[in-house]
């Protein structure tokens, strides 16, 4: 684990805070590659991972962009409301699950909302390598597009902005952008699930391994309060207790409210940290990490739910 000191923390937009971290003991930090993230442990005990948005050639600092999530369990809320200059936090060394293929002959980078953070680092790296690239930044409005001035200054006409006012039909034309693949091109997309699905659909005939994505929950499309979730019961076999999970809460939220300590990082079904063995019941798996075999015995308590009418028995 690293000890990092906050040397700057400021609002990039009303909902996104820019946080700059350096080594608490001085000196250089472990190197990272474009698209990487760190797992941050906060003083309140919460742990989350955040992408590094700065140039990967910089080893003196890590820079984050943190969205204030509407239903924060303590991660983004703490960073926005309590984290201050001079605070020391613990962090993992950088890890990259969204790497840049640097040998590509052309690169199309697409970001939605807070998904701009890893895309910024990728664009900086491609610029340094002298590789062809274009960056498409999708947001509701200019005011909600964090780091826009910095991006314009650095990337000029290789930055394209798409402001839809909350109506995706008025946003980026992915069919026009991706229907014909430039020779040797790779596309990278980070943002809400709707954008990722649309990019994958538009590039469905691209060769395998040329379409890369990273999901950032917390973007506007993910926060829309539209779902048909139903309450269900969970039985904790070892503890001998039963709880009802309301329609608007996760298994994780219920367990934490009842005093159970569950290690978490992303809370969006992407990191695999909060997996729990289940003993019976049909599961509605909503994660991005479990394979088919794993789904027969484990679930992610941050996002998984019971199928309608089912009770889940957990090995807790």
Summarize the model shown.
The chain is built from 7 helices and 18 strands.
The largest pleated sheet is described as: 6 strands, antiparallel
From N to C, what is the helix and strand string?
A: EEEEEHEEHEHEHEHEHEEHEEEEE
| Number of discrete domains | 3
Quick one: CATH superfamily of the largest domain?
A: Nucleotide-binding domain of ferredoxin-NADP reductase (FNR) module
How would you state the average pLDDT, rounded? Answer: 90
CATH class of the largest domain: Alpha Beta
- Estimated helix fraction: 10-25%
The fold-level CATH name of the largest domain is Rossmann fold
Q: Decide which structural class fits the backbone.
A: alpha/beta
Count of DSSP H/I helices: 7
Quaternary structure of the protein: single chain
Secondary structure: elements and pairs:
Layout: E1 2-13, E2 16-23, E3 37-41, E4 47-51, E5 62-67, H1 75-81, E6 88-91, E7 106-112, H2 116-129, E8 133-139, H3 148-155, E9 159-163, H4 174-178, E10 185-191, H5 193-202, E11 211-215, H6 220-223, E12 232-236, E13 241-245, H7 251-257, E14 275-280, E15 283-284, E16 298-300, E17 305-306, E18 311-314
Parallel strand pairs: 7-8, 7-10, 8-9, 10-11, 12-18
Antiparallel strand pairs: 1-2, 1-6, 2-5, 3-4, 3-6, 12-13, 14-16, 14-18, 15-17
Would you write up a description of this structure?
This protein is of the alpha/beta class and 316 residues long. The protein has 3 domains: 2-91, Beta Barrel (Elongation Factor Tu (Ef-tu), domain 3), CATH 2.40.30.10; 106-223, Rossmann fold (3-Layer(aba) Sandwich); 232-314, Beta-grasp domain (Ubiquitin-like (UB roll)), CATH 3.10.20. Helices cover 17% and strands 31% of the residues. The chain contains 7 helices and 18 strands. It has helices at residues 75-81, 116-129, 148-155, 174-178, 193-202, 220-223, 251-257; strands at residues 2-13, 16-23, 37-41, 47-51, 62-67, 88-91, 106-112, 133-139, 159-163, 185-191, 211-215, 232-236, 241-245, 275-280, 283-284, 298-300, 305-306, 311-314. Strands 4-3-6-1-2-5 form a 6-stranded antiparallel beta sheet. The protein has a 5-stranded parallel beta sheet with strand order 9-8-7-10-11, sandwiched between helices. The longest helix is centred in the middle third of the chain and has 14 residues, at 116-129. The radius of gyration is 20 Å and the shape is globular. The model is unreliable at 218-226 (pLDDT under 50).
């Amino acid at each position: 684990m690293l000890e990092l000191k906050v040397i700057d923390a400021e609002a990039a937009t009303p909902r996104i805070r820019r946080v700059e971290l350096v080594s608490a003991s001085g000196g250089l930090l472990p190197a990272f590659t474009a698209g990487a993230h760190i797992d941050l442990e906060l003083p309140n005990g919460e742990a989350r991972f955040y992408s590094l948005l700065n140039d990967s050639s910089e080893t003196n600092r890590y820079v984050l962009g943190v969205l204030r999530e509407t239903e924060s369990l303590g991660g983004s809320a703490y960073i926005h409301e309590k984290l201050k200059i001079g605070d020391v936090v613990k962090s993992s060394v950088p890890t990259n699950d969204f790497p840049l293929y640097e040998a590509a002959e052309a690169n199309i980078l697409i970001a939605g909302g807070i998904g701009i953070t890893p895309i910024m680092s990728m664009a900086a790296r491609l610029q340094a390598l002298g590789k062809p690239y274009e960056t498409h930044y999708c947001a509701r409005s200019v005011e909600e597009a964090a780091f826009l001035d910095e991006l314009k200054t650095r990337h000029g006409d290789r930055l394209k902005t798409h402001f839809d006012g909350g109506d995706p039909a008025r946003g980026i034309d992915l069919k026009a952008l991706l229907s014909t693949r430039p020779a040797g091109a790779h596309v990278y997309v980070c943002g809400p699930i709707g954008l990722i699905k649309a990019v994958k659909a538009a590039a469905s005939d691209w060769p395998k391994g040329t379409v890369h994505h990273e999901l950032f929950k917390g973007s506007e499309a993910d926060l829309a309060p539209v779902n048909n979730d139903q309450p269900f019961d969970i039985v904790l076999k070892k503890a001998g207790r039963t709880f009802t999970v309301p329609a608007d809460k996760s298994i994780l939220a219920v367990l934490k409210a009842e005093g159970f300590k569950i290690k978490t990082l992303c809370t969006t079904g992407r990191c695999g940290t909060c997996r729990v063995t289940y003993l019976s019941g049909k599961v509605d798996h909503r994660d991005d990490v479990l394979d088919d075999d794993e789904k027969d015995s484990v679930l992610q308590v941050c996002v998984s739910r019971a199928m309608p009418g089912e009770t889940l028995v957990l090995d807790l």
